[in-house]
Amino acid sequence: MTGYETLQRAVEYIEAHMLDNITYVDAANHVNMSPYEFHRTFRFISGITPGTYIRNRRLSLAGQELLYTDVKVTDLAMKYWFDSVDGFTKAFSRFHGITPSAVKAGGRSLAMYNPLSIRVTMEGATPIRYRMTEQKTVTFLAIPRSFSVDIIEDDDDHSISDFWGECISNNKLDLLKSFREKNDDRVFGLCSELKENSTSFVYALAVAVPDDFDFRQAPEGFTKWEVGKSRYVVFNCYGKDGDCISKAWENYYQNFLPQSGLESKVSPDFEVYFDNGNPDLMCELWIPVV
After folding, report:
1. H or E stretch covering 225
2. Cα Rg for the chain, rounded, in angstroms?
3. In sequence order, what are the residues at sequence separation of 6 or more whose Cβ sits closer than 8 angstroms to the Cβ of residue 118?
4. Over pLDDT 70: what percentage of the chain?
5. Helices in the chain by DSSP H: which ranges?
6. Which listed residue, of 7, 106, 177, 248, carries a Cα 20 to 30 Å from 32's Cα?
7. How far, in Å, are 18, 89, 105, 108, 113 from residue 98 at the CA level?
8. Which residues contact 230 (CB under 8 A, 6 or more apart)?
9. Beta-carbon contacts of residue 222 (< 8 Å; ≥ 6 apart)
């Protein structure tokens, strides 16, 4: 089953349970994906986060009910699983551009958000720039940190970039680099795979070390991380900020996967940053596939 078909199944599940107390995590479980991978797949294929999709659909349905029935605002807030009437009113006003009370008073200007239908579309013959590579098992010295999966629903969250900044300012990144082998100018951004029902994921700054590296010499807070042998598709990310990485993920889900016949593998993905090289290249994005 392709990623598009899997997401369509998830959308159908969401629509069938719109009045139940569900979140995107329930939809992820329904299609046997980790919340993190489901969120990432949904976002890059559809252009919207699954949590926002659920909220927009509920607000759209609530607007129709408010317009055509005599339902109370309080009952709608409860029906569509908002924590409070005030929270519902604020969300409703942001989405529709009009307050629930104004609609009740005869306002007719509402926004409609229809169910999502996920399809593969054929566009212009734009080349997909990538390379395939086999990578043996690699041992890393890593500075890990656990993050809640909730941050992936917040487009304004900068927790991971702040983590990089913290490691730069406290010189931990320079200390990490000191353990690299001679002539290795790489720093890795490792992201753990997530299992079903996971509520957090681990991201780490890391460097590759020899198999016989003595981890007893590792500073406090530094740990061993081993990534097994895998096949990867690699994209070059050109740009000055994380947007170029997001665009690479978008290209992977929207273009590469549907055409390649490959599937994502449950294994860590990672970014590779170089101290030297093309100044326009922010990093390489390595995604495990099968």
Report:
1. strand 223-227
2. 22
3. 4, 7, 8, 11, 45, 46
4. 94
5. 3-16, 24-30, 35-46, 50-68, 73-79, 85-96, 100-104, 159-169, 172-177, 243-251, 257-260
6. 248
7. 23, 9, 11, 9, 15
8. 134, 135, 265, 267, 288
9. 141, 142, 143, 176
Q: Tokens 């940053």, residue?
A: 273
Predicted structure pTM score? 0.82
Domains along the chain with CATH numbers: 3-104 (1.10.10.60), 131-289 (3.20.80.10)
Starting at the edge strand found earlier in the chain, the sheet holding 230-238 runs: 131-135, 230-238, 281-289, 269-274, 186-191, 200-209, 138-148, 223-227
Cβ 71 vs Cβ 65: under 8 Å: yes
Tokens coding 75 = 């009952």
User: What is the Cα–Cα distance from 262 to 267, expressed in whole angstroms?
Assistant: 14
CB count in 10 Å sphere of residue 173: 18
Segment 38-80, tens digit of pLDDT: 888 898 888 899 999 999 999 999 999 999 999 999 999 999 9
CA distance 4 to 41: 9
The reported pLDDT for the residue numbered 118 is 76
